[in-house]
Amino acid sequence: MAKVSKKRAAVNTKVDRTKLYSLDEAMALVKNVNTTKFNASVDLHVRLGVDPRKADQAIRGTVSLPHGTGKTKRVLVLCTPDKVDDAIAAGADYAGLDEYITKVQGGWTDVDVVIAMPQVMAQVGKIGRILGPRGLMPNPKTGTVTQDVGAAVKEVKGGKISFRVDKAGIIHASIGRVSFEPNQLVDNANELLSALVKLKPSSAKGTYMKSVAVASTMSPGIKVDAKSIH
């Protein structure tokens, strides 16, 4: 059994694992129980009452967090030559087509988001087996397949995130950093939760938002009262 450090043991005592905290309480507490020396990510974990095996319940989408994520995302735009300058001007880290298709085929995936134009998706399909497992494959549902690549880049750089339910019916998403103020984390969490509520499928039965928890990197999880979130 792994030994728990004194610092971790101390913060564990600050979290009542039997209590359901309000969102405000949870976001204030997650900052106090952080044990890392770096600016750790704050992640929200939401268990939904859906069956991801059913197409209409495979929840996925995007949301623009009002305070951003606190992380600068590296963006690759796969586009026609006439759109390269637009993509770079909007803040893309890389833009082009053939040279990046070749780089990815060679194993390069040093980016966080890939945006593509509809007319180049045939070429992008060649690297689908590489991008797909890494969650990088452009998709119209997440706004990463678009004619207006400049606008898409600005949205991603401005705090737009994508989310997708996993096989266990859970959404995992970063909503900021421990350096954020509690109210900023609350605002970002509410934005994501509101988006999830709007995506509730009509075929889902029973309780939709079963449980909500927040945690920073390497910190204990804090349970949030899902009934207080609407």
Strand content bin: 15-25%
> How many DSSP-defined strands?
9
Look at the structure and give the mean pLDDT.
Answer: 90
Helix coverage percent:
25-40%
Report, as a whole number of angstroms, the end-to-end distance: 40 Å
Query: How many domains, in number, for the residues?
Result: 2
Kindly describe this structure:
The chain is α/β, with parallel strands linked by helices. The chain is 28% helix and 21% strand. The chain has 2 domains: 20-69 and 160-228, Ribulose 1,5 Bisphosphate Carboxylase/Oxygenase; 75-157, Rossmann fold (3-Layer(aba) Sandwich), CATH 3.40.50. α3 links the parallel β3 and β4 (94-96). α2 crosses α8. The model has no long low-confidence stretch (mean pLDDT 90).
Brief overview:
The protein is of the alpha/beta class. 28% of the residues lie in helices and 21% in strands. The protein contains eight helices and nine strands.
Primary descriptors:
single chain, 230 residues, alpha/beta, Ribulose 1,5 Bisphosphate Carboxylase/Oxygenase, four-stranded antiparallel sheet, globular
SSE inventory with pairings:
Blueprint lengths: L5 H7 L10 H10 L8 E8 L11 E5 L10 E4 L5 H6 L4 E3 L1 H8 L7 E4 L4 H4 L3 H4 L17 H9 L2 E5 L5 E8 L4 H17 L10 E8 L5 E3 L6
Parallel strand pairs: 3-4, 3-5
Antiparallel strand pairs: 1-7, 1-8, 2-6, 8-9
Helix pairs in contact: 2-8
